[in-house]
Specification:
GO molecular function, one term: ATP binding
Pfam family, one: ABC_tran
Organism: Gordonia pseudamarae
Strand content: 25-35%
Keywords: Amino-acid transport, ATP-binding, Cell membrane, Membrane, Nucleotide-binding, Translocase, Transport
Number of helices: 12
Low-confidence stretches: 327-346
Number of strands: 14
Mean pLDDT: 87
Strand order of the largest sheet: 6-7-8-3-9-10
Bound molecules: adenosine-5'-triphosphate
Oligomer: single chain
Order of helices and strands: EEEHEEHEHHHEHEHEEHHEHEEHEH
Protein name: ATP-binding cassette domain-containing protein
Structural class: alpha/beta
Shape: globular
Distance between the termini: 37 Å
Length: 346
């Protein structure tokens, strides 16, 4: 478990002082993956460096296993930092060392014996599925394999926290998928608290349990993925719901996106709504994804504009959440997008 309490980071002083992290607080439990997202310049990398104490925060606490790392002197901190393993963007492996030698590095610094290092490195490379690549140099590995070596190295000192800083940036879809699957396995098997920093929203729903959006150095939204994706008022939730291309909406009709969690909504919801309203309801686009083992549906449908309130009311009775369809998908500017809280509340 890792806890950040009122963390701030200010660079410079006096007139040139810039506060890059402003009162950040969150907790990540063992067996939890927290994704941290945010636009470029929001403070994600600074947060990563303060979290693993590569950079001293200006104020606030980083508490791991009940101990405040920010209160420690250099010697104790060196030991305590082992509890946080970090995987950086592009793994930053040493090019003249083989995969095995890269993984061995933290153990060598610790003064582990050659025999115990060899055994542990074998175990770690096996864990990330790369035992057969032990003797390969970084340039002989794919980007995804290098990142998995990075994970093995980050795990060498048996941390309780794993920090993944933009580690899937630039990976192809298959390597990203393998990386994300490995992260969830490690979360469960090793009971890790994982902080997954990314700018790739599509990875978040696939891997994270909770998500925090950072903007201007502050956490502006934070919650469980399952809650956010169903919250029609959450801009983070909306950003997390992938939108495939939808067909255009005809004149006099309105595109509405219906979001539901299949655990709580009847499978024949569309038929029921059509019967209830005496309408045939064309589907313009659809996505179904799984969050936390529960399938979520995201359907864009076309509804006659004068029946929108009735549709929203009937949908609400079936525990469906209704959101305006993205304006870019509309063929004709048939109506103003729904903007007020009341209009989209079901
Ligand atoms: N050492 C520093 N001194 C002064 N300002 C800094 C320093 N490091 C970062 N900043 C500033 O802090 C802000 C946040 O930077 P940071 O790299 O943490 O953002 P980010 O969210 O990781 O961005 P990106 O996604 O583009 O990497 C930026 O405005 C940056 O210029």
């Amino acid at each position: 478990m890792i806890e950040l309490v009122n963390l701030t980071k200010t660079f410079g002083s006096g007139k040139t002082a810039t506060t890059v992290l402003d009162d950040i607080s969150f907790t990540v439990d063992a067996r939890e993956i927290l994704a941290v997202v945010g636009p470029s310049g929001a403070g994600k990398s600074t947060l990563a460096r303060c979290l693993n104490l590569l950079e001293r925060p200006t104020s606030g606490q980083v508490i791991v296993g009940g101990e405040d790392l920010t209160a420690m002197g250099a010697a104790r901190l060196r030991d305590a930092r082992r509890r946080i393993g970090t995987v950086f963007q592009s793994a930053s492996l040493l090019s003249r060392r083989t995969a095995a030698e890269n993984v061995a590095l933290p153990l060598e610094y610790l003064g582990a014996t050659k025999a115990s290092t060899r055994a542990r490195v074998g175990e770690l490379l096996d864990r990330v599925g790369l035992l057969d690549k032990a003797g390969h140099y970084p340039h002989q590995l794919s980007g995804g394999q290098r990142q998995r070596v990075g994970i093995a190295r980050a795990l060498a000192l048996t941390p309780s926290v794993l920090l993944s800083d933009e580690a899937t940036s630039g990976l192809d879809p298959d390597s990203t998928e393998t990386y994300l699957r490995l992260l969830t396995e490690l979360r469960d098997d090793l009971r890790l608290a994982v902080v997954f920093i990314t700018h790739e929203m599509d990875t978040v729903v696939r891997v994270a349990d909770t998500v925090g959006r950072i903007d201007g150095g502050r956490i502006v939204e934070h919650g469980a993925i399952t809650d956010l994706v169903l919250d029609p008022h959450s801009s983070l939730g909306r950003a997390l719901r992938p939108r495939g291309p939808a067909a255009g909406v005809g004149r006099g009709h309105t595109g509405l996106t219906v979001v539901y969690n299949s655990a709580t909504v009847p499978a024949d919801w569309l038929t029921r709504l059509g019967t209830r309203l005496g309408l045939s309801i064309p589907v313009l686009g659809a996505n179904v994804q799984t969050v936390d083992g529960v399938p979520f549906g995201d359907f864009t449908v076309s509804v006659p504009s004068d029946r929108v309130p009735a549709f929203i009311s009937a949908a609400g009775e079936l525990s469906l959440t209704v959101d305006p369809a993205p304006p870019a998908q509309s063929a004709a500017p048939a109506r103003e997008p729904l903007t007020t809280r009341d209009e989209v509340t079901v």
